[in-house]
C-alpha cells in the first residue's frame, strides 16, 4: 500500500474580499486589527434599598452589611455614608468567623492553618467577606436576598455559599443568615453580624444616657478581645449605661418561651429590641470606646454570634457542615417610640 499523501490547498485571496473582515468565520489575509479596549468595571457604590412604611433599609453590596436603617428622620442603626469605609466593622457580616482569632492561627484535622493578620501579634478579625462583592439573588419591595461565595484560600481551605434574607416591616427588620458547604470536605465556621444600635445619641459619650438589658448569665474574660480561658457571672440588668465600658462576649442567654433571647435598649429617640433565635448562643456587646473621635460611645454594637472569639482555634461552639449541608440563623431588630 502506497503511503497517503497530505494535500494542502492554497486558496488565493479574492479581489472581492476585504482582508480585514472575516469570511465564513475565518480571516482572509493581512493582520487582524483589534479596536482599543475602553471598558471599565462599575465603580459606583452598589447597594439595594428596601422600604416599608416610613422604614428604609440600605444593604451594602460591598460586604453585604447593613449600611443604614432609618424610620422617618430617626436613625435606628448608626450607619455610614454610601461609598465610605465604615469604622468598627459597622453593620458588617462576620463570616466564616466572628470576632478575633489569635495570631490568625488554628489547626483543623491535623493541618496547621495561617490566616492573614494586620501584622505580628495581631489577630485575624471578623472573617473574610467585609470587602467582598455580594449579589442580589431575589428582590421584592420589602424583602431582598443577597449572596456571595467564600472561596477556599490559604488559612481557610473550605468553600461556603452564603445568603442573607432581609425582610422589612414598618416596625421590624428580620435577617436570616444561611450558609451551605459548597466544598468537598467538612467545613467548620462561625457567623455573626455587627449592627450598631442608635437611640438618639449624636455626640461622643451619648450612649451613656441609654438604658440597657442583656439577657445573658455568663461572660468570658477577654484580654485584647481574646479569651483568657476563664468565665464569670454576668448580670444583664445593666440599667443606665453611664460611663461603663462594654466589650463583653456573653452566653447562657435567657430565652423566652418561644426560644428567643431579647436585648432591650432605650434612649431619647425611643426603644429598640434585638432578638436572636436558638442558632445564636453568643452576643458581643460593645460601647464603642475605641472608635475614632466623633463616633465614640454614641451607639451600642450588639452582635449576634454563633461562637465566641478565637473559636476556630479553641473549637468552642463551631458549626461544622458536611458537603451540601446547610445552617441558618435568624435575628430581628424592632423599634418603638
UniProtKB/TrEMBL annotation:
Pfam families reported for this sequence: Aldose_epim
InterPro entries referenced in this protein's UniProt entry, alphabetically: Aldose_1/G6P_1-epimerase, Gal_mutarotase_sf_dom, GH-type_carb-bd
SUPFAM superfamilies with a match to the protein in the record: Galactose mutarotase-like
GO biological process terms on file: carbohydrate metabolic process
GO molecular function, one term: isomerase activity
Source species, domain of life: Bacteria
Name assigned to this protein: Aldose 1-epimerase
